[in-house]
User: Which sequence fits this backbone?
């Protein structure tokens, strides 16, 4: 095994150098962030915002934990005056829910807020600061929404019917017309004789109602309306039982949507008796579903099914009935709740501004229809642009970098391995964003995936009924090699974002959203792709959300390209969080630093996962890879260099000697050479791994899973799990270099020169002695670009760059053709819960 010991970069003494000396502008103030508990709680236990909380947008919503709401109603006060005597004090009405938005931009300065339950005194005063640097996103009040809401039916698609004559005339010539008619004509044969079977297959029921409704809106052809009426009559003649309607929350929303959509669309054609019966079923579902969610959803970080579909459907149901004299008094508060909830906690939890789906690239598709429908309708009714939220403004670029054209998704989370190429819903969403906002990245992405876009049916009616389909489609001028998602805690790096066949892509995750839901125990993990195919990627198969294979060999840290400590991984909880504390680069270097020092924090106490473990017959023991660890430091530096080179430098420390497993996963066998390097070949790609450490590395691989997939067969081939193990050390440094090339090409020439690794034009060195201060240096003398992590000045290309901070990262790289130097120190990651 090759070892590089005490690798230190020799730097010219600044005092006697004739080279030019530069002070570097800092991109991020501060030092290492290591003792801050900054993450997103699954269920809120502390009010938001507090003085140390991130203010994601101005105005910040006020949120009180449900556990602090002791009565039926709650009231808020917000003021620039700590005594609340100022005329600028805002006092809310009494309300059932635990959130409040002032619906106006807050002035710069300190703001104070408090709340009270009925028959109780005001709470302690909380405060937060508006600096003026926050993104501004002040949605209209519910009163504005209510005043502008239509009082006629149909209204669920009120934002498109203004162009009815035009889109109906143009429909037959639209390239998607035949596909729409084909689905609708197929739905004409839907068997409604056995309605109970349809209740069980509620997804089919919902889709068929959508296809028939879309076709009727587009064409006005009576046969589609007649079929919809027959479906509604069958449902009302034999209403779903409680067991059918409430057994699964998707069943509740799918069945309710089917009734609501037909009721609204064909209101004028339905007899009074049918309308009344439909209203009873809509109210039955709306009341029972909404009541337990009030107070809960605003305090849950992200209830998947609720935000994917259920909120949208229940909002539509309330929107359909809010002015019905028989139900208005009961429905209006529900409509207000869903409106305020969207304004407060959407999109993407409300605590993200960077356009990436926090729950992973695999499950964003389940949210697309809601992500498009809700802002489109709310914008139309309120005359305010809900797509001006910073998350939407960044989503087009995120799609390009995390879900590249003709590529597997470049990211993490459940089902991230399932989509081996672009999903049809992503270009459909990009098309929506481009048409509505003119976003260049979204337009570029949609144009690259036109055939997939036209196969999408969820947003097909939108595309066929809009008047203007023109938007930018050229490569954006701001394309770079890297996209940074500080709120989600991920970065994506690309060597050639515009040409997937030649693109080396890397995703790196260290996230304050932790592990839970559709995210995985993958803090400080990376995935690597070439030509749109996986090279080193998370392992296991998503056959079930929480079966034994999922819990032990898919979700567990052992399934990801990260580390184990004493064989133990990260627990399934948002408390097992990471932090993306540095990120930057230019045309030749992309760099990020993740800190997962808090991620190995014992076992989960989340009731959902405890139930999953019990059902699978698995205990959270060290033997199974769960438990306490002595880890105190896990900082991972990741750099992608021009020439398809990846550098990973790990700083690992514990309060006592431990066993460290450095993990890597591949679809093919690792060929481990005598010198300790390892090579994999898959299809037209090959990749070589070089590992260096001051400690002895013991290399091994296996194709065994801790628990194999429940379903076996060709669809689920063996995968290979590589481990470099260091035993009995309390501190370890590991340097990894990965070279990737076309299988017919040679790897870049590599040689060792003392303490330096020479690869092509690059020189790489690192401090591997854990008793010394960590350091990493990467230089390219041909381009005069490089990276230096440490405390000394950095000399390259005839210039010396001095630091303002110790243990900082200096990157000297070309940006827009000009060499620029930046110094990076740790940022405090965005969070909705901080404890210092």
Assistant:
């Amino acid at each position: 095994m090759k070892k590089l010991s005490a690798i230190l970069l020799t730097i010219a003494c600044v005092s006697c150098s004739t080279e030019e000396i530069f002070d570097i502008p800092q991109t991020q103030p501060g030092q290492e962030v290591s003792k801050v508990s900054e993450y997103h709680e699954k269920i809120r236990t502390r009010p938001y915002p507090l003085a140390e909380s991130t203010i994601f947008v101005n105005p910040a919503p006020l949120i009180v934990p449900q556990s602090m709401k002791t009565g039926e109603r709650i009231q808020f006060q917000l003021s620039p005056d700590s005594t609340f005597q100022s005329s600028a004090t805002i006092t809310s009405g009494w309300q059932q829910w635990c959130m409040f938005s002032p619906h106006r931009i807050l002035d710069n300065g300190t703001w104070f807020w408090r709340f009270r339950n009925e028959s109780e005194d005001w709470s302690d005063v909380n405060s937060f600061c508006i600096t003026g640097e926050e993104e501004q996103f002040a949605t209209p009040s519910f009163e504005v929404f209510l005043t502008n809401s239509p009082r006629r039916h149909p209204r669920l698609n009120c934002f498109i019917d203004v162009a009815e004559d035009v889109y109906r005339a143009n429909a037959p010539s639209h390239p998607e017309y035949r596909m729409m008619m084909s689905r609708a004509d197929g739905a004409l044969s839907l068997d409604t004789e056995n309605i109970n079977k349809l209740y069980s297959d509620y997804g089919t029921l919902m889709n068929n109602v959508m296809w028939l409704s879309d076709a009727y809106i587009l064409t006005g052809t009576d046969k589609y309306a007649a079929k919809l009426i027959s479906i509604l009559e069958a449902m009302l003649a034999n209403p779903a039982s409680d067991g059918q309607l409430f057994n699964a929350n998707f069943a509740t929303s799918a069945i309710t949507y089917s009734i609501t959509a037909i009721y609204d669309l064909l209101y004028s054609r339905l007899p009074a008796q049918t309308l009344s019966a439909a209203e009873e079923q809509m109210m039955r579902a709306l009341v029972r579903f909404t009541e337990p969610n009030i107070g809960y959803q605003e305090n849950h970080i992200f209830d998947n099914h609720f935000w994917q579909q259920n909120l949208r459907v229940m909002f539509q149901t309330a929107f359909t009935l809010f002015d019905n004299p028989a139900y208005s008094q009961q429905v209006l508060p529900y409509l207000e709740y869903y409106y305020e909830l969207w304004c407060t906690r959407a999109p993407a939890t409300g605590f993200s501004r960077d356009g990436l789906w926090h729950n992973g690239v695999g499950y964003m598709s389940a949210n697309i229809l809601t992500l498009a429908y809700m802002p489109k309708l709310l914008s139309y009714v309120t005359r305010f642009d809900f797509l001006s939220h910073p998350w939407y403004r960044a989503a087009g670029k995120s799609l390009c970098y995390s879900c590249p054209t003709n590529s597997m998704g470049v990211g993490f989370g459940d089902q991230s391995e399932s989509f081996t190429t672009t999903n049809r819903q992503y270009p459909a969403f990009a098309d929506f964003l481009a048409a509505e906002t003119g976003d260049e990245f979204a337009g570029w992405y949609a144009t690259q995936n036109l055939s997939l876009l036209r196969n999408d049916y969820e947003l097909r009616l939108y595309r066929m009924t809009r008047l203007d389909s023109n938007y930018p489609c050229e490569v954006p001028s701001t394309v770079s090699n890297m996209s940074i998602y500080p709120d989600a805690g991920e970065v994506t790096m690309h060597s050639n974002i515009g040409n997937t066949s030649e693109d080396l892509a890397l995703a790196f995750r260290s996230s304050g959203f932790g592990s839970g839901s559709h995210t995985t125990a993958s803090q400080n993990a990376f995935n690597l792709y070439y030509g749109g195919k996986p090279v080193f990627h998370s392992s296991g198969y998503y056959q079930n959300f929480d079966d034994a294979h999922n819990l032990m060999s898919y979700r567990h840290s052992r399934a990801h390209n990260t580390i184990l400590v004493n064989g133990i991984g990260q627990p399934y909880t948002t408390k097992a969080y990471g932090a993306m504390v540095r990120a930057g680069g230019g045309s030749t270097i992309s760099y990020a630093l993740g800190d997962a020092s808090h991620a190995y924090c014992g076992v989960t106490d989340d009731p959902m996962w405890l139930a999953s473990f019990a059902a699978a017959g698995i205990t959270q023991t060290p033997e199974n890879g769960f438990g306490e660890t002595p880890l105190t430091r896990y900082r991972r530096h990741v750099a992608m260099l021009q020439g398809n080179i990846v550098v990973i430098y790990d700083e690992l420390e514990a309060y006592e000697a431990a066993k460290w497993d450095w993990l890597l996963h591949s679809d093919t066998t690792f060929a481990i050479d005598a010198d300790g390097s390892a090579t994999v070949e898959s299809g037209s790609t090959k990749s070589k791994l070089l590992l260096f450490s001051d400690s002895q590395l013991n290399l091994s691989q296996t194709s065994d899973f801790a628990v194999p997939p429940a379903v076996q067969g060709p669809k689920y081939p063996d995968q290979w799990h590589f481990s470099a193990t260091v035993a009995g050390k309390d501190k370890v440094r590991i340097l990894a270099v990965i070279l990737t090339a076309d299988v017919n090409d040679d790897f870049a020439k590599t040689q060792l020169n003392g303490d330096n690794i020479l690869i092509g034009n690059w020189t790489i060195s690192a401090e591997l002695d854990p008793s010394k201060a960590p350091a990493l240096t990467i230089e390219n003398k041909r381009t005069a670009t490089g990276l230096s992590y440490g405390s000394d000045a950095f000399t390259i290309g005839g210039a010396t760059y001095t630091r303002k901070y110790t243990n900082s990262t200096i990157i000297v790289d070309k940006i827009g053709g000009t060499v620029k130097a930046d110094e990076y120190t740790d940022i405090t990651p965005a969070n909705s819960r901080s404890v210092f």
Notes: The chain has a mean pLDDT of 93. DSSP finds 19 helices and 35 strands in the chain. Residues 272-290 form the longest helix (19 residues).
